[in-house]
Amino acid sequence: MDWQTHQEANRAGTELGGTYLYFDTAAAAPPVIAAVEAASEYLWKTTRTGPYLPSLRAEIYAQLDEIRGRAASFLGATPEELAFTRNGTESISLVARGLRFEPGDEIIVPDTEMLSNIAIWRMVATESGATIVTVAGGPTGLLDPEAVRAAITERTKLLTFAALSNVTGAVQPVVELCEVAAAAGVLVHVNAAQAIGMMPVGFDVWPCDFISACTRKGLRAIEGSGVLAVREQHLDALTPTLAGWWNAGLGDGEDVTFMHAARKLEAGSPNVPAILALGAAIAVAEGLGVDAIHTRVRELTEYAATRLREIQGTQIYGPERDADRLGILPFNIDGCDPAKLTLALERRGIIIEAGHFMATPILAAYGVERMARVSLHYFNTIDEIDQLVAAIDAERGINA
Ligand SMILES: Cc1ncc(COP(=O)(O)O)c(C=O)c1O
């Protein structure tokens, strides 16, 4: 892959790679230009002709069908197994709310998770009388399949975890975790919010039951889009949280009917601009090749980790082996306030993030309240990483 050529084409007209160096893909990546164009072209059409020009509607709905197929195959799923959502949090919530939990059921939510993969499970547990069981990832942030196996009881109904942690950057042993759960008849929900677009994800690589994802990060679509894949055999078990036109029909009596497809989880007018952008972003990722992206991000991650460690007083959190992390490098430097460091870097046009990343239990385990986080994608370069490290080194005296 000629990254340089792709870079130049995709940064034309932007300030990225010049005025700004962007290292915050874990929050949201700059969308690919094709995604922004797809959304804006549609919005312009709606203002020129009105959104319900019959031929435009027909064309758009055909495009949505085509993108559903593309998104599904990107996730190793069928079009019937794929739902468009507004974000990763909604995808997770549609699974949690859609399933039925009985009093005494157990849901395994490891301590490696961030708010969006904790809050809704706690809510449904409280409402149903189910129990949340925690499994510790430990300082590396990596889940041990044996620890999960030990936590499973005959009441365990579901295991949920993120394939790639937004906090530690740990890449979980997803296949092994799924196999341990499946052997005990436990459902598995994998949160691919950070993983999608960074590494191969999907039902064809993970033997899990549900995959939720946010598509404004590694996939570089626009804000307001997400996806959810539901294995065909679970479609009937999942009750839609929302109902109305687009996903529901009225039965003979008092009942409401839904189609046998994940689309039943989408209610009301679809978020057309975001879905069109999603289709364009997937096409770009497919054009580059997910395997090639994965290899590139892995190389950049290892280089950035090595260079960051050269800065005196730096501690990088998460997996000990760089091969167990992808793209995300959380760190602190002795005597340096991560929030002040982030602001100082912004003044230099270098964008990183500092905070608790909505994962206070993980930070508590490290005994820190905040960390700085560099997160990479294939569009970053070795030269950008060198500039970042030089800038951090120059600012590391910024103290608490
Ligand atoms: C690991 C993880 N899960 C879930 C989410 C939620 O995704 P969204 O922001 O699309 O709701 C995020 C990001 O914000 C995340 O990093």
TrEMBL record:
The keyword Metal-binding does not apply. The keyword Signal does not apply. SUPFAM superfamilies: PLP-dependent transferases. PROSITE patterns: AA_TRANSFER_CLASS_5. Gene3D superfamilies: Aspartate Aminotransferase, domain 1 (3.90.1150.10), Type I PLP-dependent aspartate aminotransferase-like (Major domain) (3.40.640.10). Keywords: Pyridoxal phosphate. InterPro entries: Aminotrans_V_dom (IPR000192), Aminotrans_V_PyrdxlP_BS (IPR020578), PyrdxlP-dep_Trfase (IPR015424), PyrdxlP-dep_Trfase_major (IPR015421), PyrdxlP-dep_Trfase_small (IPR015422). It catalyses: (sulfur carrier)-H + L-cysteine = (sulfur carrier)-SH + L-alanine. GO terms for molecular function: cysteine desulfurase activity. Residues 22-388 form the Aminotransferase class V domain. Its cofactor is pyridoxal 5'-phosphate. PANTHER family: CYSTEINE DESULFURASE, CYSTEINE DESULFURASE 1, CHLOROPLASTIC. Belongs to the class-V pyridoxal-phosphate-dependent aminotransferase family. Csd subfamily. This is Cysteine desulfurase.
